[in-house]
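Tokens as discussed.
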């Protein structure tokens, strides 16, 4: 079981809006809010049509209204893979959305649409790569993404 911190970074972009997030695991992380990892309580969602992206509770995490970052501990879940759930409220723009991931060289992740658990979106990303996933305007109904993150 890893005993150190592994963090991936994520940029969520739609039109002129961009939000920045960290996710992964850390020895001192919990399944709640950890200010040491930049996790913070967010206000309720903005009105429909306004851009927002946040990690949310998924049965493993305990976030009431979501968090900018989501860092967990392997020890709490007894698993080599940590599941993070990202919800995105796309703006009213006609532009495509983007999810840009950067992860450590010894890590992998799989991104799946949460609604169908990967029938619409199922992408594996290997460490050391900057990977941009385009979310076409026709698929902006995709608003929830499961991110499965693990160290090699």
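Sequence:
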């Amino acid at each position: 079981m890893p005993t150190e911190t592994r963090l991936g970074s994520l940029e969520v972009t739609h039109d002129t809006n961009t939000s920045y997030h960290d996710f992964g695991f850390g020895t001192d992380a919990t399944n709640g809010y950890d200010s040491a990892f930049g996790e913070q309580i967010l206000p309720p969602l903005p009105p429909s049509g306004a851009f927002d992206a946040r990690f949310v509770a998924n049965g493993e995490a305990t976030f009431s209204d979501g968090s900018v970052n989501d860092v967990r501990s392997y020890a709490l879940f007894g698993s080599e893979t940590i599941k993070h759930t990202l919800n995105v409220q796309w703006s009213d723009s006609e532009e495509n959305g983007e999810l840009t991931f950067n992860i450590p060289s010894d890590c992998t992740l799989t991104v799946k649409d949460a609604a169908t658990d990967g029938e619409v979106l199922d992408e594996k990303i290997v460490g050391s790569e900057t990977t941009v996933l385009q979310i076409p305007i026709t698929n902006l109904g995709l608003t929830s993404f499961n991110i499965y993150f693990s160290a090699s």
